[in-house]
Amino acid sequence: MKLSEIKTQLKSLNHIRFKLPDGSLVPPHFHITEIGRIQKQFIDCGGTIRDETKINFQLWSAEDYDHRLSVSKLLSIISIAEKNLALSDSEIEIEYQNKTIGKYHLDFDGSHFLLKPTQTNCLAREDCKLPSNKEKVPKAISTQCLPDSNCY
After folding, report:
1. Residue 144 in contact with residue 136, Cβ under 8 Å?
2. What's the Rg (C-alpha) of the chain?
3. Distance (Å, whole) CA 56 – CA 51
4. Sequence-distant (≥ 6) Cβ neighbours of residue 81 within 8 angstroms
C-alpha cells in the first residue's frame, strides 16, 4: 500500500484497526510512534546497485489504555511528515513489536489495515543461477554441504 492509498482509506474510517497475519488485532490503544522515510542503497548478490525508498510507520502498543489514535490525528501526523520529510508516494512498511521487531507490508480489507508478512528474496536469481520463484526447488538430500559444492 502506498501513502496515497492509506490516506484515502483513512478518510473512509471512524476507527483505525490493524490486523496481524494470524488474524488477531493490534490492541486498540496502539500508538504510531514514528513515521519516516527509509532510503536504502545496496548491492545485490549479482553486483547490481539498487536504491529503495519506503515510508516506515512504527506501530507500538503500550500500557496507555486511555488513549486511542484518531483518524484525524493520524492524517495530521502524515501531513506533517509529508511536508517535513519530503515524502513521496512510496510503499509503506510497518514495524511492529512481537517477539522481535517485525516488518510488514500493508493492505486493507475494507475495515482493517492488514499487516502482511515480508520475505527475503534473491534479487539476482539469473546471476546466482537459481530457479525462478515458480519452479519448485527439490528438497536437499542432506543438510550438509557436499565436497566441491562451494557452499559454506
Report:
1. no
2. 20
3. 16
4. 35, 36, 55, 87
Q: Quote the cell numbers at residue 27.
A: 490492541
The pLDDT profile of the chain, 152 residues, written as one tens digit per residue, is 999 999 999 999 999 999 999 999 999 999 999 999 999 999 998 899 999 999 999 999 878 888 889 999 999 999 999 999 999 999 999 999 878 899 999 999 999 999 999 998 888 887 777 776 655 545 555 455 666 665 65
E strand or H helix at 53: strand 49-61
With contact defined as beta carbons under 8 Å apart, do 93 and 105 qualify?
A: yes
All three cell numbers of 139, joined, read 528438497
Q: Name, in order, each residue with C-beta under 8 angstroms of 79's C-beta and a sequence gap of 6 or more.
A: none
The residues near 120 (Cβ < 8 Å, ≥ 6 apart) are none
